[in-house]
Model the fold of this input.
Amino acid sequence: MVDYHKKNVRREPSYRLFTAFPLSTPIRLHVVSIIRELDTLLEGVRWVPPENLHVTLRFIGDCEDAMIPDLVGAMQKAGKYLPLQLAVGGIGGFPSLGSARVIWVGAQDRTDGVEKVYNVLDEEADKCGFGREGRQFTPHITVGRARKRPVEIPQEIVERFREIKMALAADEIVLFESTLTSAGAEYKRIKGIGRETTE
Done:
């Protein structure tokens, strides 16, 4: 085991990583239209730029170069469940509608396919030393974050968006690097895995 506390020991390059389903152009435009409408209804929210929208799968965090092949291997295992059909629409908030720090658009899978993908990624991340997330997985697209204090999302707003949905063909898992800047997070695609790359 490398002791990074010793002097003159060079650390491996580290990246802040997560896995996600990318959005098709029609779905991205659909979600942007929801954001624009929500912006007129909710105050105190910092909205996610269109280019950063994605269906969150497993956030990994800081990862060294040497561990990336193991993560790609996990994506290949999860890729056997692709493609999936997700219904994108409806809104919600974490940790709750009454006190939301994160505002999201849903990405509902009417089978258990997306949960299987998540479980494989979560189990393999644990084997790589990142631990299990220990939470119930809710497929979603983060669209906004509370600027200062939590935001209340009234039930009438939830009802307003409940049935506005479009189908997303989720046929690729992508490993992204997230770089935090003063202007917000910037995402870079590292590797994509589709069903065809798992066979």
